[in-house]
Each structure stands twice: as structure tokens, then as C-alpha cells.
What does this fold into?
Amino acid sequence: MTAATARRWLVWVALALGIGAGVVGTPTRRGPVAPPPVHATALRGC
Amino acid sequence: MTAFVLPVVIGVAFGAALEQAGLGNARKLAAQFYLEDLTVFKVMFSAIVTAMLGLFWLTQLGVIDPATIAVPETYLRPQLAGGVVFGLGFVLAGLCPGTSCVAAASGRGDGAAVAAGMLVGVFGTGLAFPLLIDFYQSDARGVWTLPSLLHLPYGGVVLLVVLLAIGGFVGAEWMEARS
It folds into this structure.
């Protein structure tokens, strides 16, 4: 598999997981899916 | 023991990934600001999307407990000032903290100089901290997240960021092909 093919596959996988997240993580009649609770402070860097 | 070893292993793997992506090279990083080489944008956005999707799905599957995730609080003006200082340093040096360590580790003199300058800056900021602490703690906004700011469902924001990333990659490839 070439790098370009692998990259194209990864884009499709990300898109599928993103669409899945949009479906699963959107409020339905069963109740909303809450974002993770947030707390505390941490340092981040690049 | 794992708590000490695991961060070192992850850090080395992160450094190796940055070096592999060519981000230990200041010329490559500086080219980002001239929109000639958008590797930094692509690598960082890929990392954001990978972490975001991983976090979302591992939380959904019950592998990660969301209560253990720490999100930094927003101190708007101090963080904007920090962003400006960081950006100026990035443009001036052509390297950011992580990539300067990668560049230094792979034997580049400019990387070592930037890492040394960064440590001097950290030390100087520590010495001047009593003067800065009021500003540092000002303009506290609590924890901001995209779903709460945009008033959108969590999953919708995940999808939005994925679409933004894919659109960004297409735009980046187009810009690189043009230059």
C-alpha cells in the first residue's frame, strides 16, 4: 500500500468515526450525551 | 513506577514522531508562516483529530473514565498574552518547545540554542513571578469547551472538527501545490 493510499484510507476512517460521533453524541429522545465533565488545571504544550 | 516510565516512553515516541514528520527542522517550521509548507498544520490537526476521536470513542466504549480527564481553565487575557509571546518566539526561532527538544536531540545547534533560551525564559519568568501573579490569575473564565461555547451537542462538534480538518487538509495541499 502506498503512502497516498494509506492517507486516503485514514481520511475515510476519520470521516466514518466523525459521522458516527455526530450520530451517537447528539441528543436523542433517550436523553442527551454529555461532554466529559471538566475539572482541574493542567499545563499543555506543543 | 509506571507513572514515571510511561510518560518518558510516550515523550520519546512523541519526539520520534515529530522528527519523522520533519518538524525538527526550523526551515520546515518557518515555511509554515509563509504558507509554502503546511506540514505543521497537517501534523498538528491530525494529532488533534486522532486524540479527539480516540477520546470520544474510548469514552463511549467505557474504556476511559471521563471524570479522570483534566481540562485547563481559561484565563482569557493572560493566555492571549502568552499566545502572542509564544507566537513571536516561534517565528523568531523557527521552533516551538517540543520541536526545539527534538532538534537538539538530533544534534542541531539551533535546536539546542532555542531549548537553552526557553529554559532561561522559564527561569526568568519564575524569578519575576511575584510581579506577574496578579495578571496570571486575572480574567478567569472557568473551563471553556467547544460544545459549551457553541451550544452544540458534543458529537456534533466532533463531526464539525473532523470536517474542518479534512477541508483544511485539502486547502493545505492546494496551497502547497501552488507555491
